């Protein structure tokens, strides 16, 4: 019996992610909120013969509060996407306020829900959600996640392609750490499983790294003004939600994934990661073990080669700026 909510459910990601959540047998109630079109999306999905009972909500008559009542997992793809020439940080102006307002509603109506933040810039929007929760005295860093699964999905696909066997992609894993924008995305290809093809030259590794870091731009360019990744993001978002739900269910299997979180989620694990990074960062996409309460353990980064150490060093200034910008938006808002 799980009540899942999608905020921004009528959008390019919102619709397909709602579809995929409707097919998750663990979800028994699916509430869809957006500023437009949710009654139609909900009516459409409600004809699918899976357990979840679907309802659509709009802002009038306290729709957001009604959608969130009793929510156990909230997925947030609300906000504007990029157009060619824009960075994710350029979305901050519009999306920061949207995410703040939605986080306020969650903090007051469903403070114990798992919150999965998709809206960009993720490096800043996750700190925004966390600061709003702190303000309402309901902060639990184990339950607030930046969804970076698309980077992980891309890494598997692109590496399988480079290794010459795309069909192997489902069994290829690459930890992707750091953040979710350009140089802050850190694919740790030296830890890929199965390991990189031995005849891959360093120039190929660098090209592959760049492709994973800028995979979002590839889609923005191909869509040519019509938005950014939606379908692959919906797949990734539903995969991540399913990992959380399986961990909550306590299936017994070990669930490890990467996600952008506050390192406060596991102070013991964070100590080691901070030592490995060499700088104290409040938020970082790390490998985590998930459990019934969300983040159970932050896992160490592990060995990096010199190229990866260089990537990590290059990611830190942008991450620091993005984190500070998100936190300050709530703690020191400009008048
Ligand atoms: N984390 C990640 O890996 C990825 C993140 N994204 C981000 O996801 C976000 C959404 O992208 P798309 O779905 O393509 O955009 P979209 O424009 O197609 O959909 C966004 C939806 O949000 C709704 N919305 C706007 N303000 C709202 C509010 N206050 N409350 C509820 N809903 C509201 C809109 O009405 C629209 O339906 C963007 O910020 C994009 O950059 C996109 C791809 C990957
Ligand atoms: O590139 C974008 O703006 C959307 C996104 O985050 C991604 O596809 O990774």
Can you offer a commentary on this structure?
This protein is α/β, with parallel strands linked by helices and 335 residues long. The protein folds into two domains: 2-146, NAD(P)-binding Rossmann-like Domain (Rossmann fold, 3-Layer(aba) Sandwich), CATH 3.40.50.720; 149-330, Lactate dehydrogenase/glycoside hydrolase, family 4, C-terminal (L-2-Hydroxyisocaproate Dehydrogenase, Chain A, domain 2, Alpha-Beta Complex), CATH 3.90.110. Helix content is 44%, strand content 17%. The protein contains eleven helices and eleven strands. The strands form three sheets. A six-stranded parallel β-sheet has the order 3-2-1-4-5-6, sandwiched between helices. A three-stranded antiparallel β-sheet has the order 9-10-11. Strands 7-8 form a two-stranded antiparallel sheet. The relative contact order is 0.14. The protein binds 1,4-dihydronicotinamide adenine dinucleotide (NAI) and oxaloacetate ion (OAA). Oxaloacetate ion binds next to helix 8.
Structure summarized in a few sentences:
One of its GO terms (molecular function) is L-malate dehydrogenase (NAD+) activity. With 335 residues, the chain is of the alpha/beta class.
| Ends apart, CA distance between termini | 44 Å
Mean pLDDT across every amino acid position: 97
Helix content: 40-55%
* Order of the strands making up the biggest sheet: 3-2-1-4-5-6
Number of helices: 11
Number of strands: 11
Sketch the major β-sheet. 6 strands, parallel
Tell me the β content. 15-25%
> Which CATH architecture of the largest domain is right?
Alpha-Beta Complex
Mass-distribution shape:
globular
* Relevant CATH superfamily of the largest domain: Lactate dehydrogenase/glycoside hydrolase, family 4, C-terminal
Briefly, what CATH class of the largest domain? Answer: Alpha Beta
Enumerate the spans where pLDDT stays under 50 for 5 or more consecutive residues: none
Computed Rg: 19 Å
- Could you say what the CATH topology of the largest domain is called? L-2-Hydroxyisocaproate Dehydrogenase, Chain A, domain 2
Q: What structural class do you assign from the helix and strand content? A: alpha/beta
Q: Spell out which ligands are present.
A: 1,4-dihydronicotinamide adenine dinucleotide, oxaloacetate ion
Order of helices and strands: EHEHEHEHEHEHEEHHHEHEEH
Q: How many structural domains does the protein architecture include?
A: 2
Active site: 180
Keywords: NAD, Oxidoreductase, Tricarboxylic acid cycle
InterPro entries: L-lactate/malate_DH (IPR001557), Lactate/malate_DH_C (IPR022383), Lactate/malate_DH_N (IPR001236), Lactate_DH/Glyco_Ohase_4_C (IPR015955), Malate_DH_AS (IPR001252), Malate_DH_type1 (IPR010097), NAD(P)-bd_dom_sf (IPR036291)
Subunit structure: Homodimer.
